[in-house]
Amino acid sequence: MPVIRKSLLQLLFSGAYLLRWNDKLRPTELLETDKQAHKMLLACVLWHENSQNLPNTERLALARDIIEGGLFDYFYRLIITDIKPPVFYRIKENTEHYRKLTAHVLTRLEPILSPLGPFWQRMRDWHSGAVQNPLAQRILTAAHLFASQWEFRLIKPLNSFDDEMDDIDRSFVERLDAFRSLKGMDAILTPNTALARLANVCGQLRFQIRWTQAPRIPATSVLGHMFVVAAFAYLFSLSVEACTARANNNFFCGLFHDLPELLTRDIISPVKQSVDCLPAILREYEEEELERRIFRPLREEGLAPLVERISYYLGIAVGSEFQETARQGDVVIKVDGFDALQKGYNADALDPKDGQMIKVCDLLAAFLEAHSSIRNGVSSPHLQEAQARIKAKLCESPLECLQLEALLADFD
Fold first, then answer.
1. What three-state secondary structure class fits 325?
2. For residues 201 and 345, what is the distance between their CA atoms, to the nearest angstrom?
3. Is residue 410 packed enough to be buried (19+ CB in 10 Å), middle (13-18) or exposed (0-12)?
């Protein structure tokens, strides 16, 4: 059974320090966690559109390979961060050079990732080429290129003096054109379609900084936070032996859970809880704006099944993304807590999704944001109080199987 340790959480969070396009003039800091979140949100959309006609077992396996492949590539990226993409692509063209680089990366990662057991072995197989899923790799590459191009278009107007820009621009266009045969990709690349607008909305969440009342290092965005929560949720799912559908749903729920905050901004918990009716008002407004700006345009372009899927991750039918759910036929049902889900609904056919465990991952990501900044020497009474409050909430969690007290003790 995979074991979650402090070093793993810190490794996952470390992408919040990694600056992208660091040799270019940038209008805002572009961070690795933000890019990964944007990439995986697009990968989820492409998975959904390209798997609707597959048998359920193959559909779930494709989602698993996309999620794990995305995490495998992210871990790899954390080690080779100083290598510019053109240099890395040159290395990949030489089989022996790439094999040596991969061996170095895996050696660096082994002490942290080997406690994950089968997940670690699958990562080794993924990077050695022993196991391949061509469709998963195409979807991940397409999503990666689009998210990178989205960032590039932010910086291009500021770098007119840079003689690399035209070549980079042409390269993105040529490489992305090769993926138009993927269902949904042509629409994502076509301005003003519903899918293109969804891709843009997701990308804009990188501009929304969390904890605006408490300066921090690193100053994480809503988008980057969503990726960290998703990664935590998936790995904790493996640790409790969740079925494939549940683990996939938990990742995608973590990935989408703050999407409505583009519409309301990131409102800190003490403010949300200061007025009894405020959470309900916010929820109602979020759902109205989601319908108007995202869901209705998607439905109008024949993408109602995608709307239904995103709605399931967001817990629209049950009132919260942090409510355990499953399906009986086509009906979404509430499940009474983690234990009931674990014992009675942990089966692919029931399409289960956690609630409390996603909330734990949300809090754990927030704890790391506060703890990391304090450790980096940027603190305030507000931040210290928040760290203590979040830690107390986590230690009170009824999910004893996650061993949160022992995990958090390592951060003291």
1. strand
2. 33
3. exposed
Please give the C-alpha separations between residue 167 and each of 24, 53, 142, 170, in angstroms, as whole numbers.
Answer: 14, 38, 19, 5
Q: Is 209 exposed, middle or buried (0-12, 13-18, 19+ CB in 10 A)?
A: middle
pLDDT tens track for 396-412: 999 999 999 999 999 97
CA 374-379-382 angle, 5° bins: 115
**Does residue 387 fall inside a structural domain?**
no
What stretch of H or E contains 332?
A: strand 331-334
Asked if residue 380 is part of any domain, the answer here is no
Q: Does residue 128 fall inside a structural domain? A: yes
CA distance linking residue 216 with residue 69, whole number of Å: 31
- Structural domain containing residue 185: 6-358
**Distance between CA 29 and CA 25 in Å, rounded?**
10
Phi, psi of 39 (to 5 degrees): -55, -50
Angle, CA of 109, 113 and 115, to the nearest 5°: 140
CA–CA dist 235, 25 (Å, integer): 36
- For residue 395, being part of any structural domain is answered with no
What are 362's two structure tokens?
A: 């949300």
Is the pLDDT at 387 greater than 80? The verdict is yes
Helix or strand (DSSP H, E) at 241: none
Q: Is 267 helix (H, G, I), strand (E, B) or coil?
A: coil
pLDDT tens-place string over residues 292-347: 999 999 999 999 999 999 999 999 999 999 999 999 988 999 999 999 999 999 99
> Rounded distance, CA 198 to CA 256, Å?
12
Q: Supply the pTM of this predicted model.
A: 0.95
User: How many distinct structural domains can be found in the chain?
Assistant: 1
